[in-house]
Amino acid sequence: MELSKLDLGDFHMHFEREQRQNIEGVKFGIHEGATHTHAPEEPAHDGSCGHDHAHAHAHTHEHSHEGHTHTHEHEHEHGGHGHDHDHGAEVHDHGHHHHHAHGRSHGQIRALIEASELSAFVKKHALGIFQRIAIAEGKIHGVPAADVTFHEVGALDSIADIVCACVGLEALGVEKVFVSSLHEGCGTMECAHGTFPLPAPATLEILAGIPLSQIDEPHELITPTGAAIVAEFGAAFGPMPKMKSEKIGYGVGTRHLDSRPNVLRAVLGELVVE
User: pTM for this structure?
Assistant: First the structure.
């Protein structure tokens, strides 16, 4: 398992099949310690003012020379390692208190990744994703990116979200990632720094230059972690390009939304060149 290449201490993972509005998919969880007991889940939120498990990307296309990855679909509050996204009490904190509840510094996270035996591709992009978050947080709080201390975004599940996203894209041989149009919820959210309007400050900074709109859903749909992942890999944002799909997968988020299924759909396929 690629996560074992990081010095994360004792942890365990589990995969469960769940449904969101009759769409079935996989919910991934990661926790410190060898075992865990389930406690009532709470919406995730992170010190970056956003739930660490909200990955707003889906649809993956292709691993051939002409192939492309398209991510396209509903914004997803990823109920796994993660995040979903920020990552106080975390989505995966079923009764566990993380040793790094007060966060890790950007330098500590960089050192952790650089000292690992992860591939050059995974190291490059995982470091790039954390750098995007650090720059955004530094700008918001008026400190150099190198001095940023992540709060919950530095916890186990958040690191796993980012690293596993990079590992998965490399393993699939994806050449390009196309991301669906990004839609954020409206209203306010609570984070380590107080109450903020949506989009979360860090999310908005990270997505600068990328089209973003809001919908009438009173929840955070895109977290800083999810925003940084799509900003790192997204080649284009909008409708799915013409392609031949080969494999389709669904990941489910923690929160049950009223207006739409809280799922992330990934499509792996080959672009049709005309």
Answer: 0.76
